Amino acid sequence: MIRRKDELRFKTCVHIRRGDFLSDGQHAGTDKFFTIRAIDHLYTLHSGLVIIFSNDPDYVQKQIVDHLDYKRDVIIMKTPKDEAMKDLHFSQLHCDSVLITAPSSTFGWWIGYLSKNQSNVYYRDIYETEDSVKYQMVEEDFFPKSWKKLGMSKNGLIISK
User: Fold this and answer.
1) Which one of 3.40.50.12160, 3.40.50.1100, 3.40.50.11350, 3.40.50.300 gives the CATH number of domain 11-160?
2) pTM
3) What sign does the dihedral 15-19-23-25 (CA atoms) show?
4) Which of 42, 47, 67, 107 sits between 20 and 30 A of 94, alpha carbons compared?
5) Residues 6+ apart with CB under 8 A from 150
6) What's CA 42's distance to the chain center, in Å?
7) What PANTHER family is this protein classified in (predicted)?
8) How far is CA 98 from the centre of its chain?
């Protein structure tokens, strides 16, 4: 699942959710501007590998990875519908940090929840998105206290909330 030479490097795992979230009228999919800035922020905290889980690798390459200064440290892991369990298993074994870019994604939540380090799970502030699910969920019930909420200031800086 990972190259032997990369086993000891710090690994930040990023979940990208698009697909039905872009058209269902309820959920907010991954926003590329927030995602690029948040990956940059986490990379400055812990340089190493950035592993991006997505079922849309072309989008990830063109809209996210091509805008990063450390492309050689990025791996895109394609998530086919019938193999999603591999991402969960990978998270348990390898993810030192997790970024959930679509805050109402239950699959992103499980990647974070099953990751090996619960104190390094970051998620986007749902109240900064157009996600109508934010009116139905109690944030304290959905996101564990050890997880860290991230927001984006008006000038594009990532801030801890």
Assistant:
1) 3.40.50.11350
2) 0.90
3) negative
4) 67
5) 38, 41, 99, 122, 123, 124, 125, 158, 159, 160, 161
6) 11
7) GALACTOSIDE 2-ALPHA-L-FUCOSYLTRANSFERASE-RELATED, UNCHARACTERIZED GLYCOSOL TRANSFERASE-RELATED
8) 6
| Residue 70 CA neighbour count, 13 Å, CB half | 16
Q: Identify the residue whose tokens are 């979230």.
A: 21
**In sequence order, what are the residues at sequence separation of 6 or more whose Cβ sits closer than 8 angstroms to the Cβ of residue 22?**
29
Return per-residue pLDDT of the chain as tens, 161 residues. Answer: 788 889 999 999 999 977 666 656 666 678 899 999 999 999 999 999 999 999 889 999 999 999 999 999 999 998 767 777 888 899 999 999 999 998 888 889 999 999 998 899 999 998 888 777 777 878 888 899 999 999 999 999 999 99
Indicate the burial class of 27 (C-beta count within 10 angstroms; 0-12, 13-18, 19 or more): buried
Q: How far is CA 50 from CA 21, 41, 73, 97, 134, in A?
A: 23, 12, 6, 9, 28
Are 55 and 96 in contact by the 8 Å Cβ rule? The answer is: no
